[in-house]
Amino acid sequence: MLQSTDSLPDRPTTAAAARPVGGKAAPAKRLPAGTGPFSRFEWMLAGRYLRARRREAFISVIAGFSFIGIMLGVATLIIVMAVMNGFRAQLIDKILGLNGHLIVQAMDSPLTDYDPVAQRIAAVPGVASAIPLVEGQALASGSNASNGVLVRGIRDADLPHIRGIADNVQLGSLVDFEASGGVAIGTRLAASLGLTIGSNLTLVSPNGNVTPLGVTPRIKAYPVTAIFEIGMSEYDSSFVFVPFAEAQAFFNLGDEASAIEIYLDSADSVDELRPAIEEAADRQILLTDWQQRNVTFFSALEVERNVMFLILSLIILIAALNIISGLTMLVKEKGHAIAILRTMGATRGAIMRIFFIIGSAIGAIGTFAGFLLGVLISLNIETIREWIASFFTTDVFSSELYFLSQLPADMDPGETLSVILMALALSFLATLYPAWSAARLDPVEALRYE
After folding, report:
1. How many whole angstroms separate alpha carbon 90 and alpha carbon 407?
2. Got the DSSP string for 317-335?
3. 109: Cα separation from own chain's centroid
4. CB of 76 within 8 A of CB of 315?
5. Who contacts 260 (Cβ-Cβ below 8 Å, separation ≥6)?
6. How do residues 408-435 score in pLDDT, each as one tens digit?
7. pLDDT tens figures, 19-56
């Protein structure tokens, strides 16, 4: 095994000093055989240089900051991307749990044939259900407040297909919803109006009865028979579901529906099924999908997600720059040892690989540690949020501001892999210049004054 270059004895620097008494030149020591690319010898020297001694403590500090920077950068990127993906997935799930994937609206005449049209559309392969509904805005009043709401009339047979309501009833029941003549409201609306099961909710519609004195608002009270909680504050505070026939009478629609909501087996198949649905409707219709109705909202989410990725990538870039500065200082410090290695037969490629291993080790270990930290936090993000909220007695994730009651996280394997590969690539690129500088070091100049 080759002895450490830092403990090598002073070597003669003149030809006379290098000759023995007999006058013949002493054979120069050479590196041991088998020192090929990335050999055990190169890894041994790289590991020795990574374990800096007391006089090289500043270099060790820079390497430590580089490691911490890469670890935190990778972890932060993984966590933020997971939260953004979870946020988007939860919003889509909440929105599509209450709204159909496609909305059919009449164009040439009122939608009085809603029942046969809905049956024909429901028979299209890939369509889960087609639900006629009556929709309108009204003013809802309770025991101590009033609030603007969106009223939807739904038939008993269609309620189980709206899983956002059917699966999230907190109080009361939706059994015999039409026969009860009552309404179903969200938890936040019930809390703001001071209502509970059995309380009366008063709805006021501006489109009321026509009298000689003008149009008088239509006012009617309905008992609250069910209270649901979707988990999206905007929906829990603004939706009121009433029986289909009651909604028709309240909005003076006669035997007419406002629209038909279509639920598909897959939300991503709207473009594929659009021609078949238009053909099955067999009348002039306006067909709008969930992507068109929420294009501004989801476009803003996508822009925010991409900008966050670019900004947080700068953390990894800064850490990679620290690798460059740390390795550059290490090359300056080890100039004497590099020169001795060159005189002993080490090639420029060997020197370059040694310093490449040093910088790559910092980047690879930091990336792996950041990956573990990011996965650990992403899997426990809601628990961590609750702990922070209780410790600082503040609401970390306001449901009124972010629409959701919980902080979601959904890690995407491909996205996580791209973060890891980017961190490794930046770390490897950061080692190239210092390693190239070390390989270019002239041993004659380095040992001139030794």
Report:
1. 10
2. HHHHHHHHHHHHHHHHHTH
3. 44
4. yes
5. 103, 104, 111, 114, 117, 118, 121, 130, 131, 132, 133
6. 788 888 889 999 999 999 889 988 888 8
7. 444 444 444 445 454 456 666 777 777 777 766 555 55
pLDDT tens-digit map of 142-189: 877 888 899 999 988 888 888 888 888 888 888 888 888 889 999 989
Listed as own residue / partner, the contacts of 418-421 with beta carbons closer than 8 Å and 24 or more positions apart are 419/74, 419/77, 419/78, 419/81, 420/74, 420/367, 420/371
Nearest CA to 233 out of 191, 199, 292, 200 is that of: 191
Lookup: tokens for 260: 């038909």
> pTM of the predicted model, to two decimals?
0.68
Please check whether residue 330 is in contact with residue 434, taking contact to mean a CB–CB distance below 8 angstroms.
yes
* Structure tokens given for 177: 């919803």
Domain borders along the chain are 36-89+298-446, 109-283
Give 140-190 as a DSSP string. EE-SS-EEEEEEEEE-GGGGGG-HHHHT-EEEE--TTHHHHT-EEEEHHHH
Rounded distance, CA 133 to CA 154, Å?
Answer: 5
Residue-level length of the chain: 450
DSSP SS3 for 356:
helix
Place of tokens 């995407």: 412
Top-confidence residue, 97 or 2: 97
**DSSP three-state, residue 57:** helix
**Residue type at position 302:** E
Place of tokens 């590099």: 338
